[in-house]
Design brief:
Elements: H1 9-20, H2 34-44, H3 50-67
Length: about 70
């Protein structure tokens, strides 16, 4: 397994913070939605570029696939 890229650690932390605060639905785990991303960016004052949001979405897609 390759070393974790330290330059991207901030995105991993942002993802985990959002994931840990996403409420489950009746069928189980819900994906992180636009509202959660928007609220996170506004409340954390972490400015995310479009590519960074895409990385967070890709991470969540992997998580949701693993949970399915």
């Amino acid at each position: 397994m390759p070393d974790f890229p330290e330059e991207l650690r901030y995105l991993w932390r942002a993802y985990l913070r959002m994931r840990n605060r996403t409420a489950p639905g009746f069928a189980g785990v819900n994906p992180i939605g636009w509202a959660e991303i928007d609220a996170f960016v506004r409340n954390s004052r972490l400015s995310l570029a479009p590519w960074e949001i895409e990385v967070i979405e890709a991470l969540d897609d992997v998580f949701m696939t693993a949970k399915a």
